[in-house]
Specification:
This protein has 156 residues and is mainly α. Helices cover 78% and strands 0% of the residues. Helix 1 packs antiparallel against helix 7, helix 4 packs antiparallel against helix 5 and helix 6 runs antiparallel to helix 8. The longest helix has 34 residues. It is elongated and about 60 Å long.
């Protein structure tokens, strides 16, 4: 029994160490990028995404943050941008749809590669699915339907 506990504890500590080696540097890079406005500059290069999905240019930064650093930080940026009035309801729906399928691409991919997954296949499928779902939704979302959500789904 003691041997099982020891094996479980050591295995868990090794896993935590593997995760920390990936996550801690990513968080440091995020803070540096935030301090030097690197993410704002990067969003200028992704204007094609705004046309493809029909989202505002203000939605690019929250999308990039979510893709690169994950849902938790991306959600914080999305919520803040929404409170500031920078994002439309369509932007919010499409951001969430994309990030559900494809978030934290570096962190998640590296974590799964560490346990034996093929990173190229994993990343490619996640991007393909996220782009497909978001594009499909961007063409199907009707602004009338979105505004009806304000009334609890009741149509007037």
């Amino acid at each position: 029994m003691l041997e099982i506990f020891k094996e479980g504890l050591l295995g868990s500590l090794e896993s935590v160490y593997s995760i920390a080696v990936i996550v801690i540097p990513l968080m440091i890079i995020l803070q540096i990028a935030k301090d030097y406005n690197v993410l704002n500059k990067l969003s200028e290069y992704f204007k094609g995404i705004t046309k493809l999905f029909g989202i505002s240019k203000e939605a690019v930064l929250p999308l990039l943050v979510g893709i690169i650093f994950g849902i938790s930080y991306g959600a914080g940026v999305i919520i803040q941008s929404s409170k500031e009035g920078d994002l439309t309801k369509k932007d919010l729906i499409l951001l969430v749809a994309f990030l559900v399928a494809c978030h934290a691409v570096f962190e998640d991919t590296l974590l799964f590669v560490a346990v034996g997954a093929n990173g190229y296949v994993l990343l490619g499928l996640r991007l393909f699915i996220a782009i497909g779902i978001t594009y499909f939704l961007s063409k199907r979302i009707n602004l009338k339907d979105i505004t009806s959500l304000d009334n609890g789904g009741e149509k007037k």
